[in-house]
Amino acid sequence: MDILHIGLGERGRQWFEMARGRRDAVSVACVDSDAAARQWAQRHASGLPCYERLEEALQEVKADAAVVATPLASHAADAMAALEAGLAVMIEKPFAPNLAQGVQVMAVAHRTGHPVLVAQNNRYRRCERALRTLLREGKVGTVTHVSCIDRRRQTAAVPGGLPVDYMQLHEVAAHHFDSLRGALGRNPVRVMAQSSQAPGSPYPYDGSTTEAFFEMEDHIPIQYYGSLTANRDAFELRIEGEYGALRTDGRRLWWRKKGARFFLPLRMPKISAADALKPPREGMASLLDQLQAAIRSGEAPETHGDDNLWSLAMTEAVMVSDRSAQSVEIADVCAAAGMSAAAISQNQDVTP
Q: How much is the CA Rg of the chain, to the nearest whole Å?
């Protein structure tokens, strides 16, 4: 798999290093408007063609796939250019700055016949895989309630050119929303949400805290809270059902049978050493595997673009709800972004 790397910021460099560490992948060129980034790549791969402009690279370089890790504002444009040039595309999350641009990317993907994969690496974490398997096997029975609370103490710097507003939503909640969809196998129906600035926040802009109440398909409620300004990092996801409750801190997993007093630890499944790397590199190996499978056999990646539009719709709906101070129907958000009525109505199959 010959890879064109588009964007060599912090995340882009991680993808570059991961690809160069594989026997089945070749980094054939890179693109970045920053001269220092291009020099970094050439220090790590002598003679590697490095371009300032994407258009020039697409004209001169033959590749199978592009990894788009540019600032969020240019995700959609870069992805569409690569698709038009005949490349499969993997895009760093968030998929696009807004749902309408995500829809545009997928329209180009369908027209050109090339796959799009969104780099939601959290789905490949050991704990998330175990949780998804247990839910599919009916461990809790019918799910009755979900709560997800993420507190973290994070720098006030703006990484990767993310928008200054709704920072927590784009940087962190976007991962959580996709993970919740993947675990439950359900899409969102409506949401009531607000984004706020925590007292004493070091962030010079709004959006360091997100609170959202989602209703998923089959009337499953999700209570979500995320903050970038907590005293220390802490995460808890709890999924309750008719037989009991599953709880995780993102690394470990516990089970409490209905009526029992205590949670008991569950054994984690084995995963590959490459996927077990420390954050933020965990799961990146499986994403590259999925990208290669999509190119070679046409196999749909788990986080393919059409599926990930629903995760992007969740972030978009949170912003709409926050600005309007009203409950928002996800179908209305999707329709406003240009998704077809057929795509909106056929939203049941979220797990290939």
A: 20
Quote the tokens at residue 342. 């057929």
What is the CATH number for 109?
A: 3.40.50.720
Contact 341, 201 (CB under 8 A): no
| DSSP run (H or E) holding 16 | helix 10-20
The CATH number that applies at residue 308 is: 3.30.360.10
Residue 314 has, within 13 A of its CA and on its CB side, a CA count of 31
Question: Does residue 348 carry a pLDDT above 80?
Answer: no
Q: Which domain holds residue 21?
A: 2-119
- Name residues whose C-beta falls within 8 Å of residue 311's C-beta, 6 or more positions apart in sequence: 95, 118, 120, 174, 177, 178, 181
Task: Note the Cα 277 to chain centre separation in Å.
Answer: 18
- Mean pLDDT over 198-222 rounds to 85
Cα separation, 241 vs 295, whole angstroms: 39
Q: Looking at residue 159, what DSSP letter applies?
A: G
Is the distance from CB of 212 to CB of 127 less than 8 angstroms? no
Q: Are residues 88 and 162 in the same domain?
A: no
Structural domains counted in the chain = 2
- Return d(Cα 288, Cα 23) in angstroms, integer: 12
Q: State what percent of residues in the chain have pLDDT above 70.
A: 94
Element (H, E) at 23: none
DSSP conformation class of 340: -
Helix, coil or strand: residue 250:
coil
How far apart are the C-alpha atoms of 97 and 101, rounded to whole Å? Answer: 7
Q: Which amino acid is at 316?
A: E
For residues 74 and 186, membership in a common domain is answered with no
What mean pLDDT value characterizes the chain?
Answer: 91
DSSP state of 73: G
Same domain for 85 and 200: no
Tell me the per-residue pLDDT of 244-290, one tens digit each, with 9 for 90 and over. Answer: 999 999 999 999 999 999 999 999 888 777 777 788 888 899 999 99
Task: Give the C-alpha separation, 329 to 332, whole Å.
Answer: 5
